[in-house]
Design a protein that fits this description.
CATH topology: TIM Barrel
Radius of gyration: 17 Å
Catalytic activity: D-glyceraldehyde 3-phosphate = dihydroxyacetone phosphate; L-erythrulose 1-phosphate = D-erythrulose 4-phosphate
Subcellular location: Cytoplasm
Number of helices: 10
Bound molecules: phosphoenolpyruvate
Order of helices and strands: EHEHEHEHHEHHEHEHEH
Number of strands: 8
Structural class: alpha/beta
Strand order of the largest sheet: 1-2-3-4-5-6-7-8
Largest sheet: 8 strands, parallel, barrel
Shape: globular
EC number: 5.3.1.1
Family: Belongs to the triosephosphate isomerase family.
Main location: cytoplasm
Length: 252
């Protein structure tokens, strides 16, 4: 079912500390989601264990917002995939544009993290996206192909379907962003699908779930999710409130 489901998820970013997150997870656990939807939430690290505990046994998958590629060691301030797994999370977000922009995360680092996540049984949710400048210079498709190929470099055909990809145009994310228009997303996602099939073959390339993110709201979510190569939406602001998240998931 997971393969055919429409994935609907949100990262809480640097919001909801342990008590607010535990309360939100408690509420989420009591809501029911349509069988066609695969919901997921990505709390900050300090809330991860509580959210995993409160959602265990529910249909909501929990993820972490980042990880280091090593299992342990002298990496002050970092969190390893082993620690994330021990909390009970199944998913890990890798390469969000805020991490690329503010913390110097490159495509090559993303690739290291993807391998490590898979090695530890975590599903990587790899975020890729073009900047406003790349968009205005009409190099979006080339940019996305480059990011995708480097992120997946060396990943076996067998593991490729475990990776989720979120296309998040940098110009569409956050308060200063604007939603992308639907024909453009259709074109970008069709291109991503063909890159994936070229890389991994028809079966594995078609199995990868491709999500769209960037100023998704209750009003526009369904216009994206009904596209053939959009298998879900990854939402920020419009889904931080649990009831809004639920309503958005019911509407896609
Ligand atoms: C994001 O930051 O990944 C995101 C999708 O944010 P928003 O929905 O708020 O634009």
């Amino acid at each position: 079912m997971e393969r055919d489901a429409t994935w609907v998820g949100t990262s809480w970013k640097m919001n909801k500390g342990p008590s607010a997150a535990a309360e939100a997870a408690d509420r989420l656990a009591r809501l029911s989601f349509p069988a066609t939807i695969q919901p997921f939430v990505i709390p900050p690290f300090t809330s991860l264990k509580d959210v995993c505990d409160n959602l265990s046994g529910s249909r909501v998958i929990v993820g972490a917002q980042n990880m280091h590629w090593e299992d342990s060691g002298a990496w002050t301030g970092e969190i390893s995939p082993v620690m994330i797994s021990e909390c009970g999370a199944e998913l890990v977000e890798i390469g969000h544009s805020e991490r690329r922009t503010h913390f110097g995360e490159t495509d090559w680092i993303v690739n290291l993290k993807v391998h490590s996540a898979l090695h530890h049984g975590l599903r990587p949710l790899v975020c890729i996206g073009d900047t406003a400048k790349e968009y205005s210079h009409d190099v979006t498709l080339e940019t996305l192909a480059r990011q995708l190929k480097i992120a997946l470099h060396g990943v076996s055909e067998q593991n490729i379907p475990r990776v989720l990809i979120a296309y998040e145009p940098v110009w569409a994310i956050g308060a200063g962003g604007r939603p992308a228009d639907v024909p453009f997303i259709d074109k970008a996602h069709n291109h991503l699908r063909s890159v994936l099939i070229n890389l991994a073959g028809l079966e594995a390339g078609s199995a990868v779930r491709l999500l769209y993110g960037g100023s998704v709201t209750q009003d526009n979510a369904a216009s994206y999710s009904r596209l053939q190569n959009v298998n879900g939406v990854f939402v920020g602001r419009a889904a931080w409130n649990v009831d809004h998240f639920h309503a958005l998931a019911e509407g896609v």
